[in-house]
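Side project, low priority. Logging it here so it doesn't get lost.
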Amino acid sequence: SFFDGYIRLFWYVVAYIPVGFPVLKEAAEEISRKDFFNEFTLMALATIGAFAIKEYPEAVAVMLFYSVGELFQNHAVNKAQNNIKALLDVRPDIANVLRDGVFRPVHPEDVSVGETIQVKAGEKAPLDGTMISEASSFNTSALTGESKPSTIRRGEKVLAGMLNEGKVIEIRVEKLFSDSSLAKILDMVQNAASRKAKTELFIHKFAKIYTPAVFFLALLITFVPYFFVETYLFAEWLYRALVFLVISCPCALVISVPLGYFGGIGAASRNGILFKGANYLELMTTVNTVVMDKTGTLTKGVFNVQEVHPVSMDRQEFVNMAAAVESYSNHPVAKAVVKYAAGSKNDCEVSAVEEIPGHGLIAKVNGDDVAAGNAKIMKKLGVTYNSQIDGIVETTVLIAVNKTFAGHIVIADEVKEDARQSLVEMRRLGVRRTVMLSGDKDSIVQKIAKKIDLDRAYGNLLPEDKVRRIEELKKDANNVIAFVGDGINDTPALALSDVGIAMGGMGSDAAIEIADVVIQTDQPSKIAAAIRIAKATKRVVIQNISMALSVKALVLLLGALGIASMWMAVFADVGVALLAILNAMRILNKKF
C-alpha cells in the first residue's frame, strides 16, 4: 500500500544516514572547494539515484560496504603508523641536569651543550652526548630496529632515545635537543609521506581525468539509448548508469597505492632503514650500481689488532710489554694495542718513557730498554729485522728489546661481519656492479676488496676524486647509482648519486642530512634489505593497480550491458578496495 511504501522508505533512510552521512558531508565539502568529480560525489549520486528508482537495499549496501572498507583502510594505516609512533614514543620528556650540585628535572629543549645529565636504569637518554660513567648496557631498538643490547663505555657516544638497561649513568651533552639524532630521525619519518612516488602521482593524475570521464559516460548510458532502443525505460537505463558510477569509483586505486608505499616506509623503519620519501623507495627498485665508502661503511672504522708475531718470548708477555709502553701514547694505533691487552694481568713496571714523533716510543720496562713503533725507530736504533715485514699492507708496530728485534703486531680496520654476504645479496637482487671508493692507501683498499669480493675498488681518493668516479659511472645512462657513506667527506658523492644512503648510527650529521635513505644500524646488509623492501612494495602496488583496473573494466562492461547488478558494483568498488588494502598490509607483516 501507499503507507507501507513510505514506512519501508523511512526504515531504509534510517539505515542509510549513519553510513551515508559522512560520505555526503565529504561530497558537499569537495563541491564547495569546486572539486565536482571525486569518489565521494560518485558515491553520493549513485546512492541518491538508487533511492530515486526505489532500489533501497542497494543504496544502503553501497554505503555500508564503503564504510567497512574505510574501517579496514584506517586499520591498515594505523598499523603502518605504529612504527612511526614507536619512534615518537621514544622522545623523553624530562632530562635530569646537574645544576648547582643537584640533578634537576628540566625539559630536554632547555639543556645546553656541555651540561651533565643523569640517566637512571630503565630511562631513555633525552639528548645526544658522551658517556662520562664507566659503562652501561643500552637497548637501541627504537633507533636501529636491533633488539640486541649494546655496551657503551666511557668516552663513547650515547644517542637520544637509547634505553639504559644498566646502572645509573652520567652523560655530557654534545648537542641541543633540536640537533639530536632522534629529532632528525623523527623529522625524516614524519615528512616521508609528503614525498610521493611517481606511480602514486600518476594514480592521482589518472583519477582526476578518470572520474569526470566515467561521470559523463554514465550520463550517456542514461540518455543515449532513448534514440536507439525501441523499448526504452528511463528507470532501467538510470539503474545501469548508477551501477556504472559505483563500479567506476577509483577508491581501490586512490587508497591502495599510497597505502602500499606507506606500508613499505613503515616496514623499512621497523628494520632500522629510514626512507625520506616514497619516491626514494620506488627509485631503490631500479638501482643497479652500488658505490660504497670503506671506513665506517664496509669496515668498522675502529683500529683493532689483527695478528701478533713474537720472535722468541711468550705471546702474552710480548703483548703486555707492548701495551705497557703504548699506554703512554694517545695515537689510535697505540690505543688499539692497549685495548687488545685489556683484561689480562699486566705487572710491567715502566719508566723513562720518551715519545719520538713520527717514529714511536722508547721506555724502560722491567729494567729492559724497549722500543715500540714503525720502521723509522728500528732504523734509528740500528735494529735489524726481516725486510718482508715492510711489505705488510696493514699498519705494523715493531717491538725491540735491548736493541734486538722481538716481534711485530699487525693492526687494521676490521671488515664488518656482514659485508661479504651483503654483496652476495645485492647481486641476487639485480645489482650489476659494486664499487668501493676510499681515501685509504690503495694496497689496503685492494686487499679488502678481494676479501669481500667487490667488483672494483679505488684507493688514495680525495672527496673530489670520489665525485669524479661517480660522474664517470653516470655517463652510462643505464646506471642507476646508490652511494653509501658515513662521513662529511662523503656528502658531495651522496648528493650526486641517484640514491644517497648514509650509515646513520655513527655517521656524520652532514651525511645523514643530505642522504635520501638512512641506515640506523650501520650494517651493510641493510642495503640489500632496503632493495628487498622497495621491490616488495613495488610488487604489491603493481598487483593492486592490475587487480583494480581489470576487475573494474570487466564489471563496467557488464554494467553497461545491463548484466551487472548493484551488488556486483559494490564488489567491484569496495570489494576490490578491501582486497587491495589487505594486499598492501602484507608488506607490514612480512619479514625482511
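Brief comment: The chain has a mean pLDDT of 81.
Revisit when time allows.
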